[in-house]
Amino acid sequence: MNDVLKWLTDGAHWRGGEGIPLRLGEHLLYSGLALLVAAVLAVPLGLWVGHTGRGRYLAVNVSGGLRAVPSLGLLFAAIMLLGPRLSGEAGVFIPSELVLVVLAVPPILAGAYAGVEQVDAAARDAARGMGMRGWQVLWQVEVPNAMPLVISGLRSAALQVVATATLAATVGLGGLGRFLIDGLSVRDYAQMAGGAVLVAALALLVDLLGATLQRLVVSPGVTGQTGRSTARTRRGGRLRLALRS
Amino acid sequence: MIRFEGATKTFPDGTVAVGGLDLLAATGSITVLVGPSGCGKTTSLRMVNRMIEPTGGRIMIDDRDTASMDAAQLRRGIGYVIQHAGLFPHRTIVDNIATVPRLLGWDRSTTRNRALELIERVGLPASFAGRYPHQLSGGQQQRVGVARALAADPPVMLMDEPFSAVDPVVREQLQEEFLRLQSELGKTILFVTHDIDEAVKLGDQVAVLRVGGVLAQVADPATLLRDPVDDFVADFAGRDRGYRGLGFRPAPSLTPRSEPAVTLGTSPEEVRRSGNAWVLVVDDDRRPLGWVEPARVTEPVATDRLHRGGTVARLDGSSRAILDAALSSPSGRGVVVDDDGCLLGTVTSAEVVAALQSPPGPDSSGQP
């Protein structure tokens, strides 16, 4: 344990072309890009499935199926298939991102369609009955009420992606996985454990970020976070009204 | 005015939900659609704002064919209230009410002022404006539902069992306030319920539907109770329709007998002086509070000792109210008050029934 601490606090490990900040940056790049691509694909698709009720069966099965894909296996398969067609680092980078996207899509997709699906049927009926058009119902009623589940889908995807992005190192890319792989090859357990600690810390930090995001974008009317301190919500309400007018 | 002209809804599987409905809901009045489940009453209502598209016939609003209008535009011009209110959980009360004005593009301050005005109009405190729906009770949510439907001041309102998901006491309050509101606003209202009592209480006109969306009878509530057109309507109108029909008959002209009454704090000896088995207690303005039994009074009369079972009627109220006052009074003497709620005297059920049996005018035709 002391060795791990020593490794983590050693100034030399925080500098240079193989230092922790660089690896952290790479790790965030791999994870962030994959998460972004997955969200761009899965959020609109999930909202559409939830809104129309169409393709639900497909969505359930696809997301269930994707969850069952072993990441490492997919990574090597993708490198064998795609690698020869891509040049240089892209030959490993794109397959790695693909694996992470495949990993991130199921929870995001499930969160989005389940979020829309669980919106109170009476609220939707009222929305249509008062003259909202389809996209207004989606945007003004379904999406705001689906937010808690949409975000929890994103959060769980982010956790998995941050943890799994360590795989990139197995195919020669960077990221925090480097410390695990390199540490293993030279039996430097302090380095391995240090890398693992960094991955865990990053995952926690990302989840904290998700929680903050959730607090910012979800209406207190949806989370039920209003009863506790009426004074605070009243102030919040006034603030929102002030911003709007 | 809403006019159904042979309006029909046949579902793809061949089920006929509404089979050629002809009905006119007059401007400024409440038309209630009532019937057992499966009678197509909700389908009929939802065809008006095209939440369900008719498969045959036409539905006209003020001589405009609803089918010719853009569905969303049509709906923005029609108030819509549903059973569970259907408030938007993520929006505050004031924002919920502002929904339709916002869709119509009203400017912010007009919208907000209108919403705040409506909160008070439906009997909620202004402080509710910034709350969220989940902080309100079912009855309060339904008031917001009504306010939201009224926001853009639509001439026509559709109400689908708006009061059936709340408890009986709250329902009664909501019904009373709904009638008060309607007397101020004079909307053209189509109201769906499965509860015949609610139908005859609220409707200026009641349309009874039978299964398959066929109109069984359309009449004002008194006629419906007095003269059901067939066994189905008679059954549906209920067993004690004779008694309930009295609700639509003005109280017979009676002269209440003067009733000796005591005030709170009266001593036991004083209470026993009249010699009656029950003595009426009134407040300082002679408003009735309840009854006491002199035999059981041991200390000065206090509010917690009062028997409050008796209802109170007014001479210009309904026959039902005055008969009920007599029947519900522990002394057998029904309390009658004036417009200010002050004691006029009492009547017995025998007197009321005698007066009802010899009514002047056309109502006597059915009597021996």
Description:
Chain A: Belongs to the binding-protein-dependent transport system permease family. Chain A: Residues 24-210 form the ABC transmembrane type-1 domain. Chain A: One of its GO terms (cellular component) is plasma membrane. The complex is a heterodimer of chains A (245) and B (368). Chain A has eleven helices and no strands. Chain A has helices at 2-9, 20-52, 56-67, 71-82, 90-117, 121-129, 134-164, 177-185, 189-217, 220-223, 230-244. In chain A, helix 4 (71-82) packs across helix 5. Chain A is elongated, with a radius of gyration of 22 Å. Residues 227-245 of chain A have low confidence and may be disordered. Chain B is an alpha/beta fold. Chain B has 14 helices and 16 strands. In chain B, the strands form four sheets. A six-stranded mixed sheet of chain B has the order 6-7-8-3-9-10, sandwiched between helices. A four-stranded antiparallel sheet of chain B has the order 2-1-4-5, with helices on one face. In chain B, a hairpin with a 3-residue loop joins strand 9 and strand 10 (214-219). In chain B, helix 5 crosses helix 6 and helix 13 runs antiparallel to helix 14. The longest helix of chain B is centred in the middle third of the chain and has 18 residues, at 168-185. The two termini of chain B are 42 Å apart. Residues 363-368 of chain B have low confidence and may be disordered. The chains are: A mainly alpha (245), B alpha/beta (368). At the A-B interface, helix 6, helix 7, helix 10 and helix 11 of A face helix 2, helix 4, helix 5 and helix 6 of B.
